[in-house]
């Protein structure tokens, strides 16, 4: 009986790579297109549609990588964006609907993906206009991944735009996220958020920088003063000259 058990385990161990190999092979183009879309890379016309067609024409596998639903969702979003640029509203509506459905499918596979929740919030608001019912998607993004740097750069500016409507815990996460962006030396992005959609919350956002690395705060202070914006960054001498 023990030998039979060992043989069974050995068979499963040997067959697992064979079962998984098609899934990994199929996910390779998905990983490529996902990375390029997330990086906001400029792609040649039709490239996304071709990648999407290759992914969707492959047979369904019982063992599927979670990157595939994400790739389909992002590709659908990019196709919708291109349709909107062409001025084709009917086509764009169809593609946005397809992207929204694909995002929901992807979230069923990986509900802990903060980026997917953020994209669902963006699609809902872009398609239907701002609706407070969509706030739960943005708030879920913060619950799923409050400290994900590459997501934060997109998410923070969207969150500060509707800051007063967010729950207290989400507001705290937004403010902390802004501080993390500065601390990570994304000064240009932080400055744009602060002086743009986040200006109404500037006191809260600036106060959150108290424990941020001093060099990052100096860089932000110089960047703002070079633009003629006179604000006090905690821990930075307000009389410091911008050329120092």
Write a structural description:
The chain has two domains: about 20-110, no CATH class; about 150-244. The protein is about 70% helix and about 0% strand. The chain is built from eleven helices and no strands. It has helices at about 1-40, 45-55, 65-85, 90-110, 115-130, 135-145, 150-160, 170-185, 185-195, 200-205, 215-225. It is elongated and about 60 Å long. The model is unreliable at about 1-25 (pLDDT under 50).
In short:
With 244 residues, the chain is an all-alpha fold. It has eleven helices and no strands.
Helix content: 55-70%
Average pLDDT works out at 77
The domain tally reads: 2
What structural class should be given to the helix and strand makeup? mainly alpha
Number of helices: 11
Radius of gyration over C-alpha positions, nearest whole angstrom:
23 Å
Tell me, what's the shape?
elongated
Q: Distance between the terminal alpha carbons, to the nearest Å?
A: 78 Å
Low-confidence stretches: 1-26
Largest sheet: none
* Secondary structure tally: strands: 0
Portion in beta strands: under 5%
């Amino acid at each position: 009986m023990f030998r039979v058990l060992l043989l069974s385990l050995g068979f499963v161990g040997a067959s697992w790579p064979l079962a998984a190999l098609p899934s990994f092979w199929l996910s390779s183009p998905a990983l490529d297109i996902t990375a390029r879309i997330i990086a906001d890379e400029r792609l040649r016309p039709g490239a996304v549609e071709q990648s999407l067609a290759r992914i969707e024409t492959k047979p369904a596998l019982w063992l599927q990588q979670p990157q595939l639903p994400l790739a389909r969702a992002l590709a659908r979003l990019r196709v919708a964006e291109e349709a909107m640029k062409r001025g084709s509203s009917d086509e764009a509506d169809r593609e946005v609907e397809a992207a929204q459905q694909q995002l929901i499918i992807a979230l069923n596979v990986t509900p802990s993906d903060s980026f997917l929740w953020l994209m669902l919030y963006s699609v809902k608001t872009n398609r239907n206009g701002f609706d407070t019912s969509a706030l739960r998607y943005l708030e879920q993004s913060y619950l799923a991944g409050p400290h994900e740097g590459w997501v934060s750069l997109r998410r923070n500016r969207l969150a500060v735009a509707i800051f007063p409507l967010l729950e207290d815990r989400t507001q705290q996460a937004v403010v902390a996220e802004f501080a993390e962006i500065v601390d990570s030396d994304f000064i240009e992005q932080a400055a744009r958020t602060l002086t743009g959609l986040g200006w109404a919350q500037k006191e809260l956002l600036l106060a959150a920088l108290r424990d941020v690395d001093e060099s990052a705060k100096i860089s932000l202070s110089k960047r703002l003063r070079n633009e003629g914006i006179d604000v006090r960054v905690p821990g930075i001498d307000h009389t410091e000259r911008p050329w120092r």
